[in-house]
Amino acid sequence: MWAAAPEEARVADIDVTAVWQRHLDLGVSVLLPGNEQYPERLRNDPQAPPILFCLGDPGALSGRPTVAIVGTRAPTRYGVGVAAQLGADLAAVGVSVVSGLALGIDTAAHEGACDAGAPPIGVVANGLEEPYPRRNARLWARVAMAGAIVSEAPVGGGTEKWRFPVRNRLLASLSDVVVVVESRHQGGSRHTVNAAVARGISVGAVPGSIRSPNSEGTNALLGEGAFPVCSAGDILVALALEGATVPAPSMIENNSGVLLQEVSDRDRELYNMLVPDPTSLDDLVRSTGLTLPELCGGLERLAQAGLARDVGGWWERV
């Protein structure tokens, strides 16, 4: 008598109805290539996922320019500040920031982008029932509320190491431009860069100190032909060259205070903690209880609103 292989037996034991209901209970949408909510950017991708799971609004995945901001999980303060500033500046002018919701640069970029304008997009490797890493649970919830988090893994999908390089090719394919803020030589960001290059997607890199190991990867990318990113305006130029409809770079560089019409309650609380005299980031971290990425993201959004000002790395209330 024929006996099922162990793998076949396990598949046969799966209650498909129960699995489907679990996704519905968690508010996870299931997007298929034939579904109109399936991201347009993925339809012709050579490695388009046959199924995509989405927490939040699937509409956030299409209809506006997107920029991936990636980098090391152990950034310097410089890297955190730059990622948060780029995230806030881009979101304020209608560009969705895409990142992997990992610690470090990913976190800082999304902290800046949340509540700044365009919906943020998270691309993760695990199932959508539980934030990973757990330390980013609060940011995970904010991104899902304001935009969307997507994954190829169904609910219950693990966090095995092989999932992350595979995830990075999806992160690149959902973006019009990829920007690396800080990365060590041959750091994990290289997977995203390679996926972008293979798809003809422009790659930019933020220059860094030649003495900093965290800038080895970005400086090497510049030597290989990546475009230099010294402001969000440089990214807008790259987007325009890709055919995206974007505002003039001067709208950001003028920092006119008209780009962010409303300040969230979260940022208003931060504003109330600022004083007219310049205060260091260390003192603000202690007085507010925020993490450095949370603090930098809020400060950059307040700067966009004309309510705070960076004075040589110190911040003051306007």
Description:
With 318 residues, this protein is α/β, with parallel strands linked by helices. It has helices spanning 6-12, 16-25, 77-92, 105-113, 137-146, 163-173, 189-198, 216-224, 232-241, 250-253, 265-273, 281-288, 292-304, and strands spanning 28-31, 52-56, 66-70, 96-99, 121-123, 148-151, 177-180, 202-205, 227-228, 308-311, 314-317. The strands form 2 sheets. Strands 1-2-6-5-4-3-7-8-9 form a 9-stranded mixed β-sheet, sandwiched between helices. The protein starts with 5 loop residues before the first helix and ends with a strand. Residues 1-12 and 252-261 have low confidence and may be disordered.
Q: How do you describe this structure in short?
A:
The protein is an alpha/beta fold.
Features:
318 residues, alpha/beta, 9-stranded mixed β-sheet, two-stranded antiparallel ribbon, 40% helix, disordered N terminus
* SSE arrangement, N to C: HHEEEHEHEHEHEHEHEHHHHHEE
Structural class from helices and strands?
Answer: alpha/beta
Mean pLDDT: 85
- What is the topology, as strand order, of the major beta sheet? 1-2-6-5-4-3-7-8-9
Apparent shape: globular
In helices, the fraction of residues equals: 25-40%
Biggest pleated-sheet summary = 9 strands, mixed
Radius of gyration: 20 Å
Number of DSSP-assigned strands: 11
Alpha carbon gap, first and last residue: 81 Å
Q: Figure out the total of helices.
A: 13
